[in-house]
Write a structure and sequence with these properties.
The complex is a heterotrimer of chains A (about 240), B (about 260) and C (about 290). In chain A, about 35% of the residues lie in helices and about 25% in strands. Chain A is an alpha/beta fold and about 240 residues long. Chain A has a single domain, classed as Rossmann fold (3-Layer(aba) Sandwich), CATH 3.40.50.300. The longest helix of chain B has 18 residues. The two termini of chain B are about 35 Å apart. Chain C has about 290 residues and is of the alpha/beta class. In chain C, the strands form three sheets. Chain C has a seven-stranded mixed sheet. The longest helix of chain C has 16 residues. The radius of gyration of chain C is 20 Å and the shape is globular. Classes of the chains: A alpha/beta (about 240), B alpha/beta (about 260), C alpha/beta (about 290).
């Protein structure tokens, strides 16, 4: 079986047209890979570009050069060069993402937000709903919130909806952007348990964890992102 | 999404005399895909939409559409009869101003039922039941089925227009600023409704909008137009979160944060 | 005054070039049943709405040997009928009649005679608005396109609205028909009671709209089907009682108010039909057996 995620020779810069076209190099020579059943953690000081790197891997940020190779449905897809349709297919089937903040959609109930990745993959609504409820229960989201749209939830509640949505599928690669940032110790432990289960199931995980305790417990390797940052040279 | 594009657009240009409406636009639209065309007023996005929907004839270029039997047809070579048939069965067109897309002096039920009657449905009871069902889907009370749209609010009219377009289960829907002219809370409701319908029905859609929030919520992919030319295109979240072109960056940075 | 040397009217009022132009339009209309043919409608010595279209069609097809009958709402003796009949007597010196069976040309406003028409007879309708789609689509460019492309869904929208508002198709006159499976046509404001008489009629039916400058036709033996829904089929009006004068059933009746205390009777709208039945001894409930003073 191919390595699920291989990133090599990736470079990225932002051109700030509104600031007179200043070109800001963000990353160069990024290279790492994540094996099945392994959790790779992106480390380094804040502001070094960890979140940007995660967004590049997800296709949310474009890259200037290099490859982001993903084992999708038995073939290798270079996400850095793929057309939008392919990126969407990869996200639907292979590549999951738990962002730091939930982008809420008006009028959609929490349980439906969580079930949506399953229904998008053709699983029927009743089964998807049942599994969504299981996830929410496990993350201790109060039952009375399940049928409400998450827009008015607290940060921690929204985060748990977000985690439930990200973990409900069997995506073979999962990107985690500080999933435990606004959680209490009890729920942090639940998430650590869920990550362990994903690893046992052979999922490749790539994440950012500021909480050292969580990082210790989930990380198999840590990549220091400052190694790819041009700013390190300047500092 | 199947393996053949629904719409193939190649080098579409439209000139109004020496003035450019749009120039050299090419793209493919796939089944189930929603493409947003964004840009400021006068950027050519509505001209492009009208060229694609055969409401304008382009100065050059070609648009091919995959019919239900899988055959690819050049729209400009179709007879007017075929084109009009396509427009009232397999396509929908949602106008910014609902009065342009509705019959204002005809009841809501008949507005929705018209397309069914146009394709030969001749059972009053069935037509009325289907119309009632669609009014429900767009959240218009069944007790309004015999009221005329002129008695409806702007948001209701727009929802009625959507129901009228979707009743024949079209595969492609063109929308020109579908939420323009509505106040914000009404917009949110309409957007959510559209998002749900597009998802449930697996519609392909081309949405012209100047509102990036509409594009983010509804579309998979977007094209940014300026002065008649597509200057940037790609995955919607990529274009909005990592805009490359100066104009796109300006657009994105001009959004008011609440 | 000696009038012998003064110019008289050209036969049937219109000049020969105009008649030729109208005949060409009529021929085209016959060739395309139900299709509205534009023609250069002339000013006639009567106002629009009084049958200028019908009169021009009649003038164009009238010959010296024709026998003309003119009816208005079924009656030979109403103003419109009397004046048009007198007009052609004056300008064409043709024979006139009130007997349906004897006429070769019958000009009508709002009725088809009860007596079945025969081969060789021509029925000329006076038409106020020839376009059946106008109610819902005011643009003439668009309705023409809809006819050309057979887009007739809109016609059913009108019937749908009827049922939605009234529980049944409430259109009782000018009830739209489809001619020979192709064109949707307005049969002029005749009661829908008469629609079935148009179907496979042995007579030629010509329609003239003077103000709107359109002529259309239904040739003999042509299929004329009234539009409807499967669950709301087309039905003609029915009357509870027979004609109060001649006792006829299955004919179209007019209401006649008798006094200011609610008294009324229903009598044949087709006066010729009624008179002939009375003459042959039929009697209704209110028939008057004394001498009829006219």
């Amino acid at each position: 079986m191919a390595t699920p995620l291989v990133v090599s020779e990736v470079a990225k810069s932002f051109t700030m047209h509104l600031r007179g076209g200043v070109r800001l190099p963000v990353m160069s020579n990024v290279a790492f890979s994540v094996k099945a059943g392994e959790c790779l953690v992106l480390g380094g000081p804040s502001g070094i570009g960890k979140s940007s790197l995660l967004k590049m891997v997800y296709g949310n940020y474009g890259v200037d050069s290099g490859q982001i190779l993903i084992d999708h449905d038995g073939r290798l897809v270079d996400l850095a060069a793929a057309d939008p349709r392919t990126v969407l297919a990869v996200r639907r089937v292979t590549l999951g993402y738990v962002s730091q903040f939930l982008r809420t959609v008006p009028r959609v109930a929490a349980v439906d937000v969580v079930a949506e990745p399953l229904t998008a993959r053709g699983i029927d609504a009743a089964e998807a709903g049942a599994r969504a409820q299981e996830m929410l229960a496990r993350l201790n989201l109060p039952r009375e919130l399940w049928q409400l749209p998450p827009a008015t939830f607290s940060g921690g509640e929204q985060q748990r909806v977000n985690i439930a949505r990200g973990f409900i599928t069997d995506h073979r690669i999962l990107l985690l952007d500080e999933p435990t940032a606004s959680l209490d110790a009890k729920n942090r432990a639940v998430v650590v348990g869920m990550i362990a289960e994903k690893k046992a199931a052979g999922v490749a995980l790539l994440g950012i964890f500021h909480d050292e305790d969580v990082r210790e417990r989930v990380a198999d390797h840590i990549v220091d992102v400052s190694a790819f940052s041009p700013r390190k040279a300047a500092a | 999404m199947t393996d053949a594009p629904l719409l193939k657009v190649r080098d579409i240009s439209k000139f109004y005399g020496a003035r450019i409406g749009c120039r050299n636009v090419s793209f493919d639209l796939w089944p189930g895909e929603v493409l947003a065309i964004v840009g400021e007023s006068g950027s050519g996005k509505t001209t492009l939409l009208n060229c694609l929907a055969t409401r304008l004839s382009p100065s050059s270029g070609s648009v091919d559409y995959r019919m239900r039997d899988g055959k690819l047809c050049n729209l400009s070579r179709m007879s007017e009869a075929e084109r009009r048939f396509l427009m009232r069965t397999d396509w929908g067109f949602v106008h910014q101003n609902p009065a342009d897309g509705l019959r204002m002096a005809v009841s809501a039920g008949a507005n929705v039922g018209e397309r069914l009657m146009a394709v030969g449905e001749r059972h009053y009871g069935n037509i009325r039941a289907t119309a009632g069902n669609w009014l429900g889907r767009v959240e218009i009370g069944i007790d309004r089925i015999d009221d005329q749209p002129r008695d409806f609010s702007g948001g209701m009219r727009q929802r009625l227009q959507i129901a009228r377009n979707l009743v024949t289960a079209p595969r492609l829907v063109f929308m020109d600023e579908p939420t323009g002219g509505l106040d914000v809370s009404v917009q949110a409701r309409l957007l959510d409704l559209l998002r749900g319908l597009v998802q449930d029905l697996g519609l392909s859609a081309l949405i012209v909008t100047h509102d990036l929030a509409v594009a983010r919520l509804l579309s998979h992919r977007m094209m940014v137009m300026k002065d008649g030319v597509v200057i940037e295109q790609g995955l919607t979240d990529r274009v909005l979160d990592d805009p490359r072109e100066a104009y796109t960056q300006l657009l994105v940075s001009s959004i008011l944060q609440v | 005054m000696n009038t012998a040397n003064l110019a008289t009217y050209n036969f049937a009022y219109l000049d020969e070039q105009t008649k030729r132009m109208i005949r060409r339009a009529i021929l085209k209309a016959i060739a395309i049943p139900g299709y509205q043919v534009p023609f250069a409608s002339r000013e006639m010595p009567m106002p629009y709405g009084w049958g200028t279209g019908g009169v021009q069609v009649t003038a164009a097809i009238l010959g010296p040997d024709d026998v003309l009958k003119v009816i208005d709402q079924g009656a030979d003796d109403t103003t419109n009928a009397v004046s048009i009949r007198a007009f052609f007597q004056k300008v064409a010196s043709v024979a006139v009649t009130t007997r349906t069976g004897e006429a070769t040309i019958i000009q009508t406003r709002h009725r088809i005679p009860e007596e079945k028409l025969k081969p060789g007879q021509t029925l000329v309708y006076q038409v106020p608005i020839p376009e059946p789609l106008r109610f819902l689509e005011p643009r003439e460019t668009e309705t023409r396109k809809m006819h050309a492309l057979e887009e007739y869904g809109l016609m059913h929208v009108k019937l749908y609205e009827d049922i939605a508002r009234n529980g049944h198709i409430a259109t009782t006159y000018a009830y739209p028909v489809k001619v020979e499976g192709r064109y949707v046509m307005d049969p002029s404001p005749t009661p829908k009671f008469d629609n079935p008489k148009m179907h496979r009629s042995e007579a030629l039916q010509l329609f003239g709209a003077g103000r709107e400058k359109r002529i259309y036709a239904v040739p003999p033996h042509t299929e004329v089907v009234s539009l409807d829904f499967e669950d709301h089929p087309f039905e003609i009006q029915s009357f509870e009682n027979p004609c109060a004068l001649c006792g006829a059933e299955n004919v179209y009746l007019d209401e006649v108010v008798l006094d200011d205390k609610g008294g009324r009777m229903f009598v044949c709208s087709d006066t010729d039909h009624c008179e002939q039945r009375c003459a042959s001894g039929h009697r209704g409930s209110l028939a008057y057996d004394g001498e009829i003073v006219r």
